[in-house]
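Go through this chain for my students:
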Amino acid sequence: MISHKLSVAVLCLAMAAFPAWAQTGASLSGVVTDKNGAPLPGVAVTIRNLDTGESRTIPTDGAGHYQATGLPPGRFEIRAAKQGFADERREGISLAGGQEATVDIKLGTPDACTSGHEFLTTDCTLTWHGITLYGAYDVGVGYVSHGLPVNGSNYEGESLVNRNGYQHRFLVAPNNLQQTGFGIRGREEFAPGWSVVFNASTGINPNSGLLANASATDFNNNGLPRKSYSMAIDGARAGQPFNDEYYGGLSSTLFGTLTFGRQRSLGTDAMLQYDPAGGSYAFSYIGYNGTMAGGGDTEDSRWDDAMKYRFALGPVHFGAMYKFADGSGGCYSASSTWTAANCTPESAHNNAYGFDFGGDVGKKFSIDVVYQAYNDAISVLNPLLGAQSPTQPYESTTNSINTNPITGPNVIGTTNTLYGIVTDNTAIMVAAKYAWDPFKFYGGYEWIHQTNPANPLGVGALDQGGYLLSGVEDSNLDSPKIVQIWWMGVKYAVGRKTDITTAWYHQLQNDFRLPPTCSVDAGFRSSCAGTLNEFSLYLDHHFTPRFDGFAGIAYSYVGGGLAIAIPHGPGVPYLNNSNFAPTIGGRFTF
C-alpha cells in the first residue's frame, strides 16, 4: 500500500515538474540547411517560450529535420547552433492551440575561424568579440578592342564601351566580379532584442594599392589632348578613406534597423540582389555604370549624411532612406557674362529620399519595387577640356564650360577640380528573380526622369569626396530627359561549385532636344535619342569556399545621342562605338 502511494506521488511530482507546454497540441518543425541548401544533421535547435521562459533543445536528424510537439499557445523564438557556423535565430513566431507550424532555417554565415588552416579551407569569419574583419581581392587579365591606358585610381577595368577608348590593349584588369577592399562590421547586443551595429568599408585598386577614386581619373586628365587620356570614369568612390560605407546605428528584432552615415542607396542594394552578375564590373553594365543604382547618376549609388531604415515582417520587407543636404552650392549667376564679384552664393540643396517595398514567395521568387528622388545630382562626364576643344567656349581656361562662362581671371584653378552637369532626378525600379533548380532567372526595369535643377549649383560647389567644381552646367536639358534601363539574365549551377551566367542590359534615352533636329545630316547631340546594349557570358568556379576563378566576355555598343562623348555644340562623338572585352582572373574573399 505504501509502495503504491509512493508511486502515485512520484508520478504526480513528475507531471508537475514537466513543462506545461507538453500537455497541449501545437507543434514546430522544419529543416536546417547550409547556405547551399544541403541538410545539416546534429544542429542543436532550441525552442524558447517567450511567455514562460521555458526552452527545449532538439538535435536535427540525418536529413536536417527537427520537430517539437506539445507546445502551448504563445510566442516563441528558435535558435539553431552548430560548430563551424554562426548561430541563427527566428523570432516573431506565434502559435495557436493545435497549430502545426513549419520554420526552415539556413545557416549561411560560418562561425569564427579558430586556425589558419580553417581560414584557408572554409568560409569561417574573422570575428573577435562581435567585430568582424572582411574583404576581397579580385584581379585578372583581359583584352579590350577599344581601350585606354590604365591609371592607379581607376577601379572598374575597361569592359564597357568608353567614349574615349581607341586602342586595342591587353591589360591587368582590377575588380572583375567584386570590388577589392576590406571592411569592419559589428553587432553587439546591449539589451534583449536590441543591438548596436556599425560598418566601415572601402575599396582599392589591387594593381596600385590606391584608394578607388573616380574623380582623380578625371582631373588627372584635365587639359590633355583627348588621345593622351588615361582611363577616366565617374562614380561615388572618390578617394574617401571609407569610399564604400561608413555608418552606425541600432537594430531591434521587433522594430527593424536604423542607421546613419555614408550608405549604399536603396537602388544599389537592389542592384546587387537582382543583377544576374551581382554588380560585376567586368560582366554587368548596371554594376559598372551605376546609373540604375543611383537613380539616374552613378555618383548617387552611395549617399552621405543619410539615414536608412530596414524592417522585415515574415516574407515582406520595407526600406526607407533620407539624405540631408550637405556641402556648398558654390557661386552662380544667370547672366551671360559674370565675374566672381557679381555671382550669388548658393546653399546646398542635395537632399534625397527613397523607399523600397519587397517580399519573398516561398524560397523561389523575390520581388522589390524601389523609388528614389535626388536633388542636384552631379554627373562628371569628361575631364576639363584643353586647347584641342572645337571652339573657344569649351576651353577650360575660362574655368567654366556652361552656357554662362566666367569673364576675367579664373575663380578656381583647374588643378584637382571637376566639370559637372547638374540635374534633379526621380526613378522607379521593379526587379525580380526566380529559382528553378539548377537555374536562377533575373530581370528588372527602371524608369528615370531628369530635369534641370530647381536650385542651380555654381562654380565652387562640392562634389563627391570634397572635390570642387570649376565647371558647372545647370541648363543641359532642353526638356525632361527620360532614361529607361532593362536587364535580364540566367545563372545555371553546374554542380555545387560552378556557375555559368549570361545577361543582357539595355539603356534607352529619349529625344529631349529642342528643336528636335536629330539625324546624321543634322549632326547628333547628346540630347538626341540613343541606345546602349551589353551582352555578357562568364563561368565562375569555386576551388575552395574562399577562392574562385572566372573567365568570360562582355560586348557593348552605343548609338544615337548616347554615342556623343562631349555634350556640347555639334556634339563630339565616341572615338569607337563598341568594345569587346574577354577577361580571366581569380578572387579571394574573407
In short: The first strand starts at residue 26 and ends at 34.
